[in-house]
Amino acid sequence: MDAAPLLFQIAELLDRHALEAVLIGNAAAALQGAPVTTIDLDFLFRKTPANLKKLKAIAKELDATILRPYYPASGLFRIVRDADALQIDFMSVIDGVRSFEGLRKRAKPVRFGNVEIRVAGLADIIRSKKAAGRPQDTAVLGVLERTLEETSRHPKGPTGSSQERE
Fold first, then answer.
1. Diameter of the chain by CA atoms?
2. In CATH, 4-149 is 3.30.460.40
3. Number of Cβ atoms within 10 Å of the Cβ of 9
4. Along the chain (166 residues), what's the average pLDDT of each consecutive run of 10 residues?
């Protein structure tokens, strides 16, 4: 499945609702050339009353529902749409990352059409997956580390040298 149309739509919704979020996880790694797959999109965001209202508005526009799991994932807000199995996770805390602001500052801007989303760098993704230590995270660490090493030797922006998706 080509995730580009969904990423364009999500980028536009984040921009329109002024919800500041950073794409993390395997989707962010894939945009930087890592040969990994995922079935969802993961974002880190600030959990504030205003941002939760924005998140609800985004879910409504997507004709989706927000699920809020309880402990141990109480900082997770999952947008789901049954019609096409859409799943977008918004997390307020992730392992290995001290603050949203720090991650946001290190994240790379990637353009989708007329808007930009911030994408966590591979080093931050690797650090988070190591700290989480889940089997699905440790399974991709070697691939992510090799991709980081390769991109460090031959720097390109996310999704190629132009850092833009057309």
1. 43
2. yes
3. 15
4. 83 97 96 92 95 96 88 80 94 93 96 94 96 93 94 69 43
Q: Which of left, alpha, beta for 161 (phi over 0: left; psi -120 to 50: alpha)?
A: alpha
Pairwise CA distance, residues 63 & 84, whole Å: 11
Residue 165 is predicted with a pLDDT of 47
Dist. CA 132–CA 158, nearest whole Å: 24
Each domain of the chain, given as residue ranges in start order, spans 4-149
Res 75: pLDDT: 84
CA trace torsion 127, 45, 25, 41 (10° rounding): 170
- CA–CA distances in Å: residue 124 to residues 45, 134, 135: 15, 16, 18
